[in-house]
# Entry
Amino acid sequence: MKCVFLDRDGVLNRDYVDYVYSLEKLEILPGTAEAISALKRAGYLVIVITNQSGIAKGIYTREDMQKVHDEMQRVYKNQIDHFYYAPWHPTVSESLTRKPDSLMFEKAIAKFNIDPALSWMIGDKERDLIPAKKLGIKTIQVDNDDSRMADYRVQSLPDAMEVIFG
# Structure
C-alpha cells in the first residue's frame, strides 16, 4: 500500500498557537478537500499523524478533539483512512508516539501494510519530517518553518499534489 501521511494543524486546517480543539476554531484550508480526493482517486491511503499536546496540558479533552476530527471527516467526505494522535507533552508526560518520534508512523505502517518507499509525509514543521525520514518516507514541507530537511517545499497541500503526481 502507498500512503500520504498528513500533519493536521498547518496542513489541513489553520494552525493557532492556542490550539484547534473546537468547531469554532476549525478553519479548513483552501483546496485541501480536493487534494485529499485526488489522493484517494490515485489509490493512496490518507492518514493524519498529529500531536495533540493540549490534552495532556488539560486545555481540552479527547472528546473535544474527536469532534474536530468528526467534522474534518464530514468535510473530507470520510476519505481520511485513520487519525493517529499523540495526546502527550514533554512537560507533562513522555511518549514515543509524539513526533518527532516515529511510533505513530510505525503503527500505521504495520496496521495498513504500508510501503514507506511508495509513501509521502506532508507537514509544516521539521518535527513532522524527522520520523518520516527515519523510516524512508519522502517528505514535503508546507512552507511555514525554515527547515532544510524536506525533500520538497511547497506553499500548501494542493501544491504538494504537483510534486506527488509529477
